[in-house]
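Internal ticket #5521
Category: modeling
Description: The requester needs a full-assembly model to guide mutagenesis choices. All entity lines are attached below as received. Residue total reported by intake: 585.
Assigned to: D.W.
Attached entities:
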Amino acid sequence: MQTRFQGRVWTFGDDISTDHIIAGKYLGTTDPKIFAEHAFEAVDPTWAKKVQPGDLIVAGANFGCGSSREQAPIALRTLGIAAILANSFARIFFRNAINLGFPVIECAGLRDRVKPGDGIELDLASGEVRLPSGEIMRFTALPPNVLEILEAGGLVPKLRKELAQKSSPALT
Amino acid sequence: MSEKILARASHAESVHPGQIVDGDVDLLYMHEMLAMALMPFNEIGTMKVWDPEKIVVTLDHWVPPPTPEIAKMHQTIRDFCHKQGIRRFHDVGDHGIVHQLIVERGYAHPGDLVIGSDSHTNMVGAVGAFAAGIGATDTAAVMATGRLWLRVPETIRVEIRGKLADRTGAKDVILKVIGTTGDDGARYAAVEFTGPTVKEFPMNERFVLCNMTTEMGAKVGMIEADSITKKYLAHPGVPFQPIESDEDASFAKTFTFDVDGMGPQVACPSNPANLKPVEDVEGTKIDVAFLGSCTNARIEDLRIAADLLRGEKVAPGVRFQITPASQIIYRQALKEGLVEVFLDAGATFTSSTCGPCFGGHLGVLAGDEVCISSTNRNYPGRMGSPQAQVYLASPWTVTASAIRGKITDPRKV
């Protein structure tokens, strides 16, 4: 699993809902490209065109609140967003992202220390974010069971592995 | 209460907040998100669902399907349910907004661990179940294994006391609670409602309270089952074994709301916590009034609308749409003559769907439109154009506003 990320920052405020991330009118498909094309359209209609793979999102509190639509993290992941750092996450968005193998990190106070376009470095293993000034901010490590899903590359690969082990004759 | 249910579901003597448990799911229910869950389900590779008898599926977000692609999506879901032997598949015609369908058909019981593929699954906690919403990959995992990891939530107790003003109800109460605690005031927590006002609320009002704990960020909203719950769930063959909160249960926080004499409340654009008493927004011109969604489109809500509309007309230039929460409610509204009242007044009445609430289809908003809605969310773009303005309110306030063409205190109609 990739644990170090270096990227350009996009900033968002508090209470960014899944309605902001991907509007309901685009959910009548299962095609991730459609979700990606319209990501954050309600905030900035040209955002999806400006994002580069490897970019990072830094947001305020309660990121991803609202609908349980997994199309929201899928949209951001498909655009190549490497990780999301926020003061806090809404619970379903957090689970959905982790299940996709998409790093989402709670780092309280980071939002006020960065501005759009800043380059920051994220180290999941050491639990550190390096700001453009060189200053280091620490974040709380993910719980072990969550880290396990992330390390497996998501919930599906983790379950596949577990089911394969269960049915393997060598282990019975 | 939630700790007791999670202990039973994870075969532990007791569990404590913060602990991660693997729970055996008593009921998994899904709507069109099943289509999104199929790819991960197929990748997991069990081929068969863990137990078709513990699964309920209906179609609600896009009913009837507005595009060929969605019609195809419905076909895929229909075929999957048939092949997997999911008997409780409620197809178009027999459908309802899934949370409503689950409670009105007696599919969820007190003490159950219920998992739904939608954020408003919290509503089902009003029968005394632990009912939490999840996304597509988690849904696939539960379909394959029958289990889900859950962090045992802290419990926040919300006590409601006092007698509400006339034409004021549970929607006004929950908007007040959200406006006070914020839209992340109960993030990751279980919210347990109690107090004399809650104990007197009928089930339809209790559903409203639990439904919008989602807008507090809560994992579940719950109300201890009592004689009112028992009567509501009196379906043949449905067991009733309520789980109670212990006398000495510990709560992370307790909020007490004295709602004595409290009047109608409105959540203003564009956050459900942006609360104002109706007096502060009275006179705001509206273009659309919507009575629908899992939050407030039960038969009792439709009766309120009909009571206010009898002998009245919807204001010129305003479209008032009423969309019942299920086909059972649709039929009941017909039987009681409510539909005729709606049509006489110039309102439109549609088949049951989530459509307008999430801006999907069947009545969405233009950029310069102002809407008052009985639904649960008003984030930008929620009901159509990101520029549209959505005010959330009770069925009384929505209907009174439809008649006057502007936000109106229902006590003045």
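Resolution: model delivered.
Comment from assignee: DSSP finds 14 helices and 18 strands in chain B.
Ticket closed.
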